[in-house]
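Escalated from tier 1: (S)-3-Hydroxyhexanoyl-CoA holo job.
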Amino acid sequence: MTDKIEYSRQDDIAVLRIRNPPVNALSQAVRQGLSDAMDRAEAEDGVKAVLIVGEGRAFIAGADITEFGKPPQEPFLPDLCTRIEGSPLLVVASMHGVSLGGGLEVALGAHYRIAQPDARVGLPEVHLGLIPGAGGTQRLPRLTGAEKAIEIITSGRQVKAAEAEELGLVDRVTEGDPEAVGLAYVRELLSTGAPRRPVSELPAPEPIDWDATYDSVLKKGRGQISPATAVRAVQDSAEHPFAEGMKRERAHFMDLMQTDQRKGMIHAFFNERAVGNLPELKGVEPRALQSVGIIGGGTMGAGIATAALLAGLNVILIEMKQEAADAARERIAGNLQGAVKRGKLSESRYEAMMTTGLEVSVNYDSLRDVDLVVEAVFEDMGVKREVFGRLDAVCKPGCVLATNTSYLDVNEIAAATSRPEDVIGLHFFSPAHVMKLLEVVVADKTAPDVVATGFALGKALGKVSVRAGVCDGFIGNRILAVYRTAADHMVLDGASPFQIDKALTDFGFAMGPFAVADLAGLDIGWATRKRKAPHRHPEERVPTYIDRLCEQGHFGQKTGEGYYVYEKGKRGGTPNPKIAELVAEEQAERGITPRDFTDEEIVRRYMCAMVNEAAKVVGEGIARRPLDVDMTLLFGYGFPRFWGGPMKWADIQGLDNVLADIERYAQEDAWFWQPAPLLKKLVAEGRTFDDLNKAAS
Ligand code: 3H9
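Tier 2 regenerated the structure:
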C-alpha cells in the first residue's frame, strides 16, 4: 500500500484515510493506495465496513490535474470507483471541505455518504475542458434525474451540503470530526442491517428532450464543447446499461483530453494560481494592511471601496464636496445591497460596514493613519500630481500610495511625492467590486515590499493580480489598443463591425470589440484619438468614421446610439445603418476598394495583432512572463478561457505560423505589422511562450 493512504481498524470497520496534501488529489499513488486498502479490508478477518475519509482541508479535490496530458497510469479512476462500489463490504464516504470531480465520483462509488454542513460537492470538469470521467455522468443522474445532473455538470458549480442532501447526493449531514461522525454513521448502518446500495444498480434516469438540451447548452457554452458533450454522456446513462454508459463516458472523456480547449483551460487553471508567484517577491513581507483610503467616489472609487469593505478592510473615502461624498456613500450602499440581495452578505454585516467600516469625508486629514491609499480621480496628470502632493503631506510614513491610472506615467506621479519608493499603480477594472483583474504597476523606484503589499491587497480582495511595468496602457490597455486598431483596419478594408463582432463572439469572446466600445462609451476612444493625434506616425492608419458619430453626440449605449442602436427596455442593440454610410465615405476619401473578409481571416488578424503586441510587451519586460499577458486578457478583457489566453492560443497555432501570417500582413501595412523581436527569436530557436513561462518559474 502507498503511504498516501493510512489504513486503520476501528473494531469491524476499516478506516481509509487519504493523505495527499494540499487537497488530496487522486494521483496514481492515491488510486493505488485506495485499491490496495480495499483489498486489505476485504481480506482481513472481521471487517464488515469501510469508511473513507480525507485528511486536511478537503475530502478529495478530484483527479490529479498535473497528470493530465501524460500517459494514463493504472489503476484508472473509473475502475477504482467501480471496484469500491462492487465491494462486498459496506462502504461509506465521510466528506468535508470539497469533494470535486473524481472526489465526488469516489464518494458516489461508496454505498452511503455523510457530509459536514459546510461541505461542498461538485463535478467541475467542464472548467477544465472535460466531462466527469469516472462515472459522474452515469451515477449522478441515477440519483438526481437527468435534468438536475446536467445542470450540475454543465455549470460545474459547487453544491452546498444542504442542497446535496435534498437532491439525494448525500444521505446525511452531520457536524463533527469527519472520521468520528463517519464511524458513528457506519455503526448505525451496521446495527440496522442497512444493505449495500450501489448507485449503478438504481434505475436509469427518465429521458428528457436531449437534442433541445444539447442545443441550448452548446449555445450557452459560446464555443466550448465539453458542456454539450456532457449532455450526450448523461443521455447515454438513460439509454444504455450502466457498463455500456461507462464505456461511452470514457470514450468522450479521452476524446476531450486531446482537445486544444482542454489544454487551454488547464493552462488557465494553473496560471491563475502561478501569476501571483513572482520570484522577485520570494521572502519579501508585505506591509500591514488594515485600513484603506480612497480618493474619489465615482463608479471606480466606490467599486474599490466596496471590494475593500467586503474583504473586511476599513475604508476612508475622500471626496471634494459634501454632495459628492453623499453620492459616493449611496453608490457604495447600492453595491453592497446588491451583495445582500445575492445572499453574499448578511444585513447585519452590511450595517456594520456602512457604519463602523466606512467613513466618507471631505477632509484629507482623515487619511492620517491609513495603511494604503488608492487614488481614483479624473485621468489627468496635473490633477493626479496635485492629489499625490497632498497625500505626501498627510499620510503616515510607510503608507502605500497607489494610483488607479489606466495609462498615465506612474513614475511622473511618484515624482510629485518625496517618497517615490512608496508609490505604485493599482489598476482596477470597472466595476471594481466585480472584475477579477488587478494590474499591479511597478514604477522605477517602487520598493519590493510595496509591490508585495499590492499583491497582498489583490489577494485580500479576491483578485487575480498581475505585475506590470510602466508604459502607455500597461499590459492590458496597451495590447487592447493594437487589436482594436486591427479591427478598425478591417472595417476600413471592407468587413463590417457587425461581422467582426459576430466572428469574435463565435470564437468565444464575451463581446465583440464594437459592442464593447458602445458599452464603455465612444467618447473614451474619441478622447484617446485626440490625445494621441499629435504623436502619430505619418504611416499610421487611424480610421475616423466613428468620430463623425461622436461629433453628433452619439456615444454608444449611454446615449442610445453607437455602432448599434439601443431601444429602451431591450437588451442588446441592432446594427446602426449609419455606420455603413460613414465607413463608405471614409473609404472613398482614402481611395479604398472594400473587399470581403471570411470570419476565419477576421479572427486570425485580430489574434495575430494581439499576440504580436503581447510579445512586444513581454520582450520589453512590461509583462514578466507570457502567462502574465494570458491572465490579464482572461480576467480583464473577456478573452475566452478555453483558449487559455492569447499566448497559449499562439503556442497552439504554432509560433512559426503566427509569425508567417504577421509577415504576410506586413506586406500590406508594414508600419502596423512590425513583427515583435521576441516572436522572431522564439521562432528561430524553435521555442514557445510556454517554454518562457517554465524558464521563469
Ligand atoms: C477530474 O476529477 C476528472 C475525473 O472526473 C475523471 C478522471 C479520470 N490536482 O486552488 P488552491 C492544487 S478533473 C492537482 O490554491 P483553494 C493547486 O494547483 C479534476 N492539483 O486552493 C494549488 O497548488 P499550488 C476536478 C490541484 O483552497 C493547491 O492545490 N477537480 C488540484 O483556493 C491549492 O489549490 C477540480 O477541477 C487537482 N485536482 O481551492 C478541482 N486541485 O499551491 C480543482 C488543486 O502549488 N481545484 N490543486 O498553487 C479547485 O477548484 C481548488 O483548487 C480547490 C481548493 C477548491 C480544491
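Residues 22-23, 25, 58, 61-66, 77, 98, 100-102, 105, 124-125, 128, 132-134, 136, 273 surround (S)-3-Hydroxyhexanoyl-CoA (CB under 6 Å).
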